[in-house]
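Appendix B, Record 12. Input sequence as logged:
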Amino acid sequence: MSELGSPSRVVFGQADRASDRITQANVDCPVPNPQVSNSPKIDLPPAAPVQAPPKLVTFDWGGVILRHCRSWAEACQHVGISVREGMDDPELQALRRKINQEFQCGRMSEADFFPAISRATLDLYSPDEVRTIHCGWLLREYHGVADVIESLNNRRGVETALLSNTNAAHWRRHLSTGFKPADFPTIGLIKHKHASHLLGHAKPGVEIYRAFEKSVGMSGSDILFFDDLPENILIARELGWRAELIDHTRETKPQLLDKLALVGL
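Logged structural output:
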């Protein structure tokens, strides 16, 4: 987990013989024997897919829809603030992770968060500098993911959702305010939007997945989930979700389209 970070595949077997192409659903049906001329002709129903397409396609925000910094040093460089000696102290890093966890679970206000992180740097960075770095943590949206979401929204029988570890300060940036457009508007296209600071839990804790299931009214293989962290994918799969790992270092639209095609979307 970053200090300020926000936000099975089914493999179809190929039979070696033509007779092996009969689906399990049809195993008990009498099959015509081509060597017996008086065998009755039976029209077998079409083979059923191993799994129906998912009903809910769920995206993580950071690393799937939105690029963000992966380290304090990267965020400092992005906003033009120097990286100062002492930030790599293990105890201070652990303290900052704990503070961030409280913030992204909605248990700490912004007014308390920035001074708390400042103190956890031994005042190497002021609260205002921490706020600037935190704002600069979010970079840009991946190209074309909005098109993927819109395409899914236009399909019958499937809905879109978001499940993200984020916080109140970052969350506001997908919203337009007055005459100012949203900085990162894509998740506004998503029907079911759920975030750690609103649910009170964070990935990879099982509690946030269960809270999400309760809210959307779906579970198990009805859900297809995209995330860029292996630990989040692991828990989702243990709960029976169809979960796919996304490589955040590459553009994500081609990855999403490939994985959606594999499940019939």
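The longest strand covers residues 159-164.
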